[in-house]
Design goal:
Radius of gyration: 18 Å
Number of domains: 2
Shape: globular
CATH architecture of the largest domain: 3-Layer(aba) Sandwich
Number of helices: 9
Number of strands: 10
Strand content: 15-25%
InterPro entries: AAA+_ATPase, ABC_AA/LPS_Transport, ABC_transporter-like_ATP-bd, ABC_transporter-like_CS, BCA_ABC_TP_C, P-loop_NTPase
Bound molecules: adenosine-5'-triphosphate
Structural class: alpha/beta
CATH class of the largest domain: Alpha Beta
Largest sheet: 6 strands, mixed
Keywords: ATP-binding, Cell membrane, Membrane, Nucleotide-binding, Transport
CATH topology of the largest domain: Rossmann fold
Strand order of the largest sheet: 6-7-8-3-9-10
Distance between the termini: 28 Å
Mean pLDDT: 89
Helix content: 25-40%
CATH superfamily of the largest domain: P-loop containing nucleotide triphosphate hydrolases
Pfam families: ABC_tran, BCA_ABC_TP_C
Organism: Ramlibacter alkalitolerans
Order of helices and strands: EEEHEEHEHHHEHEHEEHH
Domain ABC transporter: 1-234
C-alpha cells in the first residue's frame, strides 16, 4: 500500500483459517490500521490481492463485503447516540433484510426485534436495552458496536482496537466476549497492546515499519528476539 510516495505496507502475505482468532500487533505507525482497512475493504491496495474463500474481493464495494459475510467495527464508536441500545442493534439486523424489500416498514420485522434482544444478551447489554446509546459507558458502546457487527451474521469479524479507551474491567469483559465469538467465526483484531492478545489468540502477526516482522503462535512471538527489541520498554 502506497500513500503517494510513502510505502505504508510492503511484502505482506498471509492467510487466515476458519474460526481462527488472530491479532495483528505492532507499535504505533506500523501499518496495522492500513492492513485492517485493506482486509475490510475500506482501502484498495496499490498492488496485491485480497481473497475471501477463494474469491477475489480486492475491488469490491463495501456493501459487497457485508453480503459476503465480512463485518467490522472501528476504533471510534459508530453508534446512533440518540437511539436506544436495542434500536441500534435492531436497525443493524434490519439491514440484512432491507435489500430484499426496503419498502416494508420497520414494524414489519419482529424477527429483527428478537434478534436484537438475543445479540444484546450475547454481548452482556440486555440490562441496558432501552438506554440511549449515548448514555452508555464507553466499554458498553464498544460492546454495542460488536452486537451491531454481529447482526450481519458475519463469518469474518474484523475488530480495530476493540479495547481502545476501555478501563481494565471493561477490557477483561471485551476480551472474554471476543474469545467466545471466535468459537463460531473467524476473528481478526488489531491491537497495539501485545500482552492483551497473547492469552487469547492462536496466532499473531507483528507488523513493523509496514512489513511482517514475525508471525506465529503467542509462544513463538514471545520468544522472538526481534519482536522483543521492537517492544522493549512497551507494555
Ligand atoms: N491516508 C494516509 N495517507 C498518508 N499516510 C498514511 C495514511 N494512512 C496511514 N498513513 C501512514 O502509514 C503509516 C502506517 O499507519 P497506520 O495507521 O496503518 O499504523 P498503525 O500501526 O495502525 O498505527 P497506530 O497504532 O498509531 O494506529 C503511518 O506512517 C501513517 O502516517
Amino acid at each position: 500500500m502506497r500513500f503517494g510516495r510513502f510505502q505504508a505496507l510492503a511484502n505482506v502475505s498471509t492467510s487466515f483459517r476458519e474460526r481462527e482468532l488472530c491479532a495483528i500487533i505492532g507499535p504505533n505507525g506500523a501499518g496495522k490500521s492500513t492492513f485492517f482497512n485493506i482486509l475490510s475493504g475500506s482501502l484498495a491496495p496499490s498492488s496485491g490481492r485480497v481473497l475471501f474463500r477463494g474469491e477475489d474481493v480486492t475491488a469490491l464495494p463495501q456493501h459487497a463485503y457485508a453480503r459476503l459475510g465480512i463485518a467490522k467495527s472501528f476504533q471510534i464508536t459508530n453508534v446512533f447516540k440518540q437511539l436506544s441500545a436495542h434500536e441500534n442493534v435492531r436497525v443493524a439486523a434490519q439491514m440484512r433484510h432491507v435489500r430484499f424489500n426496503f419498502l416494508k416498514s420497520r414494524e414489519d420485522w419482529p424477527q429483527a426485534r428478537e434478534e436484537a434482544d438475543a445479540l444484546l444478551e450475547r454481548v452482556g447489554l440486555a440490562p441496558w436495552r432501552n438506554k440511549p446509546a449515548g448514555d452508555l459507558a464507553h466499554g458498553q458502546q464498544r460492546a454495542l458496536e460488536v452486537a451491531m457487527a454481529l447482526a450481519a451474521r458475519p463469518q469474518l469479524l474484523l475488530l480495530d482496537e476493540p479495547t481502545a479507551g476501555m478501563s481494565p474491567e471493561e477490557t477483561t469483559v471485551m476480551m472474554a466476549l471476543i474469545t467466545s465469538l471466535a468459537r463460531e467465526r473467524t476473528v481478526i483484531l488489531v491491537e497495539h497492546k501485545m500482552k492483551l492478545v497473547m492469552g487469547i489468540c492462536q496466532r499473531l502477526i507483528v507488523l513493523h515499519h509496514g512489513e511482517f516482522l514475525a508471525e506465529g503462535t503467542p509462544e513463538e512471538i514471545r520468544a522472538n528476539d526481534q519482536v522483543r527489541s521492537v517492544y522493549l520498554g512497551q507494555g
